[in-house]
User: Which sequence fits this backbone?
């Protein structure tokens, strides 16, 4: 796949900026596997179902450019405005067939979110035309959605999924973490701890007691709302109520702390 005589391999890392080491691990993965790494920074309005979330999204271009330069990123694509991405829609943006991805988990709690993600990634792929697309496992369901998008549009781009980068505390790195106070950052580690506890106690049989304990753990840590905590089939994301000891599982969570919505996931098998 890499550095063939047929031409240089382009690696692409789409982001919304406010970069952190999680993003930089995608850049490193692209640099290791391709000849030219392109990063985009674009806070895509069509994927925000909550306008307040969009308004509060951190924007730190100077720091981002410094980090990308230090990481050896070759090209930064930073559109000035949505018009640059969604110029002339002829034909109009398609509707993407995402099936259960739009009714489960993030799909259920953020209506329209994954259509917006597909729109922007589709547009970016047309512009950048990468051989390989690097995305973080932190957004597990998003990776599955993008895999479907690539299939649906008949793209030859290869999706590479990069492991989640965590703080020493276990908290998954996220641009949204910058909106948390030092005290809240400590409370937020309950997400990782609850996922770790699910993994540690998983055994064949009913999984509801594990979910109840995790929910309780989040409540006690000060999370004001849990959108979902789910033990699901690792490929379909359908919830599993009774584990047969063999089905591949992933635990996924989305919860609010200090008004900030955090998501994380962990492979259980
Ligand atoms: P975002 O800027 O949040 O849209 O994220 C851009 C890309 O970085 C997505 O593919 C994310 O899954 C990935 N990403 C975000 N946080 C992390 C993390 N902690 N570890 C690995 N990848 C991440």
Assistant:
């Amino acid at each position: 796949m890499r550095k063939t005589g047929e031409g240089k391999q382009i690696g692409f890392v789409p982001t919304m900026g406010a970069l952190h080491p999680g993003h930089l691990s995608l850049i490193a993965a692209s640099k290791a596997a391709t000849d030219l790494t392109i990063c985009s920074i674009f806070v895509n309005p069509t994927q925000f179902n909550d306008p307040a979330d969009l308004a509060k999204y951190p924007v730190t271009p100077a720091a981002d450019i410094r980090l990308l330069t230090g990481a050896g990123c070759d090209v930064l694509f930073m559109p000035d405005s949505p018009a640059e991405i969604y110029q002339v829609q002829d034909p109009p943006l398609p509707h993407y067939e995402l099936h259960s991805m739009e009714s489960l988990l993030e799909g259920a709690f953020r209506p329209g979110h994954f259509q917006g993600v597909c729109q922007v990634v589709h547009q970016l792929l047309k512009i950048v035309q990468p051989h390989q697309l690097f995305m973080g496992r932190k957004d597990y369901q998003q990776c599955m959605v993008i895999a479907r998008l690539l299939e649906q549009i008949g793209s030859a781009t290869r999706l590479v999924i990069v492991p989640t980068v965590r703080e020493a505390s276990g908290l998954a790195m996220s641009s949204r973490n910058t909106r948390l106070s030092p005290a809240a950052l400590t409370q937020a580690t309950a997400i990782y701890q609850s996922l770790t506890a699910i993994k540690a106690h998983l055994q064949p049989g009913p999984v509801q007691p594990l979910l109840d304990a995790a929910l309780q753990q989040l409540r006690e840590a000060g999370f004001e709302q849990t959108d979902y905590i789910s033990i699901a089939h690792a490929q379909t994301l359908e919830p599993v109520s009774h584990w047969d000891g063999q089905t591949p599982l992933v635990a996924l969570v989305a919860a609010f702390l200090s008004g900030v919505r955090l998501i994380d996931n962990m492979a259980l098998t």
